Amino acid sequence: MQSNVVGHEAVGANMRKYGRDALPKVIKAVEVTTAQIVKAAQANHGSNAHAQTRYENRTTLLTNSMKSDPAKVVGARVIGKASANKEYASDVELGTSTSRAYPFMFPALQTEGSKLAKNLKITMS
Question: CB of 68 within 8 A of CB of 37?
Fold first, then answer.
């Protein structure tokens, strides 16, 4: 599954504009955004979750396995990672032949990933 963050071209342009001083600020913005993605993915899994097409949290193991890693600089990119580290996380996210999908990470990425530009603006000021 791949998703693009809107505005990444502007990030590159701003990096060139602000120079090396911008890198720590970009790293911070990416880390804030990935933490927001995890927080959104962990939300709304109570007893009425299935009615909202969310998984119902029975043991908290999946929810507690979600984390964001420190951002990494790879070449000219700053990469953030949000993940769920239970072996069955992809089965819940994508579904199986016998179980419907209850996406949690992709919807969080869609809603919170778009906030990267706002987080960059805050950290760059």
Answer: yes
Other beta carbons less than 10 A from residue 113's beta carbon: 21
Whether 110 has a pLDDT exceeding 60, the answer reads yes
Q: Single out the residue of 1, 107, 97, 95 nearest to residue 52, CA to CA.
A: 107
Report whether 29 contacts 18 (CB < 8 A). no
Of residues 99 and 125, more confidence is placed in 99
Cβ within 8 Å of residue 80, ≥6 positions away: 30, 31, 33, 34, 68, 69, 71
The structure's pTM equals 0.82
* Residue 1, domain member (yes or no): no
Domain count, the chain: 1
- Domain residues for 105? 8-124
Measure the CA–CA gap between 80 and 100, rounded to whole angstroms.
Answer: 28
